[in-house]
Design a protein that fits this description.
Strand order of the largest sheet: 2-3-1-4-5
Order of helices and strands: HHHHEHHEEHEHEHHH
Largest sheet: 5 strands, mixed
Oligomer: single chain
């Protein structure tokens, strides 16, 4: 019952997820404990019709719960970065974008359930490596975001990234005969590479892109003397792509949400969920 109540609150908070008729039937059966037969008689429809309506309502609300969970991930990630890398009295730290190589091959060859087990082992190992020096969170698919505290110079960051890369490889050594589990890593350092979430995130993501382009199984961290020019050129190219493409619209929606959520969380939630409803 508690889960049903939470879903109804989801309806109240996020607006027209259900039609008025769906809401009436859903609340009668789920919250007020009327039987399917009683609701069917009251509304002059079949008992099966009520059952099917409840099933559709559950599907609608479950879909939005999963979307809300994704939104909350971004909120929590931003909070961790804000706390550990920005609002920390000028102390240095690193934002790390981590990507598992060959997950698609694992899924295609051994099945998605086994792929999920691999990701679970990866998450556990990453948390073990980082320990109390930072936080680890999966941000979707085969990507993790890691925030590391007290990175005072490049050598410390290099040592941490090397440890992550090596220990992940060791974790799966001998598990597969025809390939190895490896990872690609991109990182940026605060405040050297930026003092805002967006700057750090984009530069870490850009370095992850470079690591993949160079053949994967490596780490790259942002250095002005090596990467600034190509990074700025990549930003310029994106800006010249245009503003009407689907990818550009999605990036704009995410960027707007990240900006709005710090000022008015309820409104930001409503707008991003409304965007999802209209787009998908």
């Amino acid at each position: 019952m508690e889960k049903f109540v939470e879903r109804t609150l989801l309806y109240d908070f996020y607006g027209e997820l259900l039609t008025k008729r769906q809401q009436q039937i859903y609340e009668s059966v789920v919250l007020e404990d009327y039987s399917l037969s009683e609701v069917a008689e009251e509304l002059n429809i079949s008992r099966q019709g009520v059952h099917d309506m409840i099933k559709r309502c559950n599907h609608t609300l479950e879909e939005y719960e999963s979307r809300l969970h994704l939104v909350e991930k971004f909120v929590n990630i931003r909070r961790q970065v804000q706390k550990r890398l920005i609002d920390n009295d000028g102390k240095t730290g690193a934002m790390v974008m981590w990507d598992l190589d060959n997950l698609k091959y694992v899924n295609d060859t051994y099945g998605h359930l086994y792929g999920d087990k691999v990701l679970s082992r990866v998450g556990y190992k990453l948390k073990e490596i980082v320990g109390d020096d930072g936080v680890v969170g999966r941000i979707g698919g085969d990507e993790f975001l890691i925030v590391i505290d007290n990175i005072n110079d490049d050598q410390i960051l290099r040592g941490m990234l090397r440890a992550i890369r090596t220990q992940i490889k060791w974790e799966f050594a001998g598990d597969f005969e025809d390939f190895s589990i490896t990872c690609s890593i991109g990182a940026s350092i605060a405040p050297n590479n930026g003092k805002e979430f967006e700057d750090l995130f984009k530069k870490a993501d850009y370095c992850l892109y470079i690591a993949k382009e160079k053949g994967r199984d490596r780490y790259v961290f942002f250095r002005d003397e090596l990467h600034r020019k190509s990074y700025e050129e990549s930003i310029t190219r994106v800006q010249h792509v245009g503003t009407n493409g689907r990818e550009i619209q999605e990036l704009k929606a995410i960027a707007k949400f990240m900006s709005d959520v710090t000022e008015n969380q309820a409104l930001a939630y409503r707008e991003i969920l409304q965007h999802m409803l209209e787009s998908y």
